[in-house]
């Protein structure tokens, strides 16, 4: 009796949706505060003349009645909805965006290299991975996922309910996301793709229990053996196209009943597993960068780019050569829930009795001449995209969070100041910099922007480049800049940042069909929105590397995971831009981090004398 009582207690962690009801709503910040914050953010990135002009426009917006009217409308919207921002954000940031999802919006995650080099290892690992994710799904379905906290406050867990059994669907002008987890009949299959051929794999027995690792292994073997042909049309590559192009091709594809049913099976599946062919070998030094690229785009039409369905929210990638990771479609969720899932899926083994299982069903596609033409076009465009993406993974091994913590500095602010210093050293100027901040303290919260470039960060990087400045002065400026960053981060996660509020005011003026306020037509606004540095910290217990493409043609994408004694940084740029170079920037970041440590140590040594 006692034992029963103890175990039943252990199985009742806090229900993840119990808190959901009590979460606060996303606030609408005061208008004056946002206007002041906006001007402060512009100061280091626009010229004095531009700033004066914008100050005038902001003054008119604030005092001329237009801002006040939109602010009232926004406050009204906030009262009437669960979250005044979430729908607008999903539309404007993702569903209206017409660039391909591969490279441009879908992040990739590289998992630590696995020590297998053959199909046996690949199958075993894939089977364990599937079992682990199904175990995670059980937690989501039974609402027993432990609630996450940030500085003592419970976070919104809604994104976990959006990542499984969901898929993006292209439209001619705007996409949609379907979620089959929120229906009466939930999905019981995953899709597995091998040699460009898709299969439906039922992952539950008739009694509702998930297949064991051994059963999954057996089914994957069957799939592998019935997809040995390597000359199949890579239907999945269509999903990597520009969204309007894919929207047209999609409608054409699903005119055929067989195709429509096959596509629907992929969309409804819980997630997708891509069994990748081995890639050309590279040196250990280049390995991480190559895999990061493989996670983002598959390596090109002749490699694994056709072994994907990029619209699928969650695709796990397991290569025959030990390469593992995933790519996810960004519209339904941010990185942290995905990384939380990875940290959860620790690979463990269970033996089990063998029951004969039905052959997984291969999905059929009828390739008409039009579809064939669409595939050829998609292959060409994918290869252009592959050649254009420049990826460099920096495994910074000299130190990690331990150094900034020892000097009482925030590790995140420390890394961000290193990025600022690296950029300034390369370009002799600073730029508009985006760091995403989670709004999950609020119901249905997604992200806002921490604007990293501040007057204080500029003062610090300039002092580092000025030989006349002494160590003591540089350290004070670093402390001030990191403190400002910390304050801006605090404001952002508490719903008091600038960018989403401005977006809300702009969206409202579009919906009201009134004339667009001047501040949104101003060059300063365009400069502020042109993020040459798009950055994100994605902390994870697993030693993984997350990566994403740049936000702008002449920018960098920088994703970093600061561990205790090392920092993983993935940097992307486009080769079509002369000015940017991922490897050079990585070198500059490494130099900046080392110089900042030296600065702190010099100051500490001087203080002790």
From TrEMBL:
Stored PANTHER family? CARNITINE O-ACETYLTRANSFERASE (PTHR22589:SF50), CARNITINE O-ACYLTRANSFERASE (PTHR22589)
Q: What are the record's GO terms for cellular component?
A: endoplasmic reticulum; mitochondrial inner membrane; peroxisome
InterPro entries from the xrefs?
Carn_acyl_trans, CAT-like_dom_sf, Cho/carn_acyl_trans, Cho/carn_acyl_trans_2
Spell out the catalytic residues.
330
> What catalytic reaction does the record list?
3-methylbutanoyl-CoA + (R)-carnitine = O-3-methylbutanoyl-(R)-carnitine + CoA; (R)-carnitine + acetyl-CoA = O-acetyl-(R)-carnitine + CoA; hexanoyl-CoA + (R)-carnitine = O-hexanoyl-(R)-carnitine + CoA; 3-hydroxybutanoyl-CoA + (R)-carnitine = O-3-hydroxybutanoyl-(R)-carnitine + CoA
The protein's role, per its UniProt record: Catalyzes the reversible transfer of acyl groups from carnitine to coenzyme A (CoA) and regulates the acyl-CoA/CoA ratio. Also plays a crucial role in the transport of fatty acids for beta-oxidation. Responsible for the synthesis of short- and branched-chain acylcarnitines. Active towards some branched-chain amino acid oxidation pathway (BCAAO) intermediates. Trans-2-enoyl-CoAs and 2-methylacyl-CoAs are poor substrates.
The keyword Transferase is assigned to this record: yes
Q: Which lineage is the organism of this entry classified under, starting from the top rank?
A: Eukaryota, Metazoa, Chordata, Craniata, Vertebrata
The entry's family comment says: Belongs to the carnitine/choline acetyltransferase family.
User: What GO MF annotations does this protein's record show?
Assistant: carnitine O-acetyltransferase activity; carnitine O-octanoyltransferase activity
Its BP terms in the Gene Ontology are: carnitine metabolic process, CoA-linked; fatty acid metabolic process
Q: What is the official name of this protein in its record? A: Carnitine O-acetyltransferase
Membrane disposition: Peripheral membrane protein
**Which residues belong to any copy of the Choline/carnitine acyltransferase domain?**
26-590
KW Transferase (keyword) present:
yes
Locations listed in the record: Endoplasmic reticulum; Mitochondrion inner membrane; Peroxisome
Assembly with partners or alone: Monomer.
Say which species the protein is native to: Takifugu rubripes (Japanese pufferfish)
